[in-house]
Amino acid sequence: MGERTAQIKRILDGLYRKYNRHDLIKPDPLQFVYRYSGRQDREIVAFLAAALAYGRVQQIEKSLTDLLGRIGESPSEFVQHLDERRREKLSDFKHRFTTGEDISDLLKLLNRVFVENGSIESYFLLGYNKTDESVLPALSKFCNGLLKTYAKAHSRLAHRGLKYLLAGPVNGGACKRLNLFLRWMVRDDDVDTGLWKRIDKAKLIVPVDVHMNRLCRILGFHNMKTVSLTMAVKITEAFKEIEPADPVKYDFALSRIGIVKNCTGRRRNGCELCELFKFCFHR
User: Fold this and answer.
1) pLDDT band per the 50, 70, 90 thresholds, residue 262
2) Rounded Cα gap, residues 157 and 160, in angstroms
3) What's the half-sphere exposure (Cβ side, CA atoms, 13 Å) at 110?
4) Domain spans, the chain
């Protein structure tokens, strides 16, 4: 490990100690998962929270509060007995361009997953191979399998809204929301749930949003302009040089600089107090 990499690691470890605490999870959508104790409830809520993790943080919180209020105290019971009456409860739900119909169709697929496999983890493991370099092949099989299940049940391809919620790596997108879900499920610390026990966290891919894109560019992890799967893999490889067994370890803590400190990548008062100031090309 070179001196610059070692210096970055010291800073990241400091950020991890500072921010990777359960009491600092809010306003992250992960906060909703910890409102439930049952395994199936947590898997369902985590998948929904990650699926809707696009747009402004405040709107995500508002939408998830609305959605989970409609679903009720037991998401697993709601999914198990998802009928037309319950679909109607979601009919006028809206989060940006995700509709209640999209959510109902997703929950119907998850119901089948639970009936046939017992958990989302077990279904994901059907496509997981320990020899794969990352979770991406398994993630592709996971999304494609669910979309094929929908197509077979309805004798038509999945609609655009459902495809967006199950947008796997096949089209080259960064898969931020699905990689976020996997981080929550696989990693186990004061923030992430560790609910899934059979997937190696070393194979996770960093969930790249606007904040991680900007901050990782500042750190010199990439120089790309467009967020993509290629960028996510490149950033993950950079983190692997620092923490090979847990490349996604610093995701939550590092993203707090963007979310909590409201970093825009432009110089302003207070920037000199930021842990990353010495690396920032706007200094």
Assistant:
1) low
2) 9
3) 29
4) 3-279
pLDDT band at 20 (very low <50, low <70, confident <90, very high): very high
Chain mean position to CA 249: 13
pLDDT at residue 187 is higher than 90: yes
Instruction: Report which DSSP code applies to 101.
Output: H
Beta bridge partners of 193: 188
Structure tokens at 254: 């590092």
52 Cβ contact list (under 8 Å, min separation 6): 29, 60, 63, 64, 67, 95, 98
For tokens 């947008």, the residue is: 167
Q: Which residues of 230-241 are buried (b: 16+ CB within 10 A; e: fewer)?
A: ebbbbbbebbee
- pLDDT, tens digit, for every residue of 116-174? 999 999 999 999 999 999 999 999 999 999 999 999 999 999 999 999 999 999 889 99
DSSP state of 22: G
Beta strand ranges found along the chain (DSSP E):
94-95, 98-99
From CA 247, how far away is CA 232, in angstroms rounded?
11
How many Cα atoms occupy the beta-carbon half-sphere of 264 within 13 Å? 5
Q: Is 90 exceeded by the pLDDT of residue 98? A: yes
Measured between alpha carbons, how far is residue 185 from residues 24, 189, 220 in Å?
Answer: 18, 11, 28
Identify which of 259, 213, 193 has the alpha carbon closest to the alpha carbon of residue 222. 213
Is pTM, for the whole model, over 0.85? yes
CB 232 within 8 A of CB 205: yes
Which DSSP string do the residues of 132-196 spell out, in sequence order? SSSSHHHHHHHHHHHHHHHHHHHTSPPPHHHHHHT--GGG----HHHHHHHHHHH-BSSSSB---
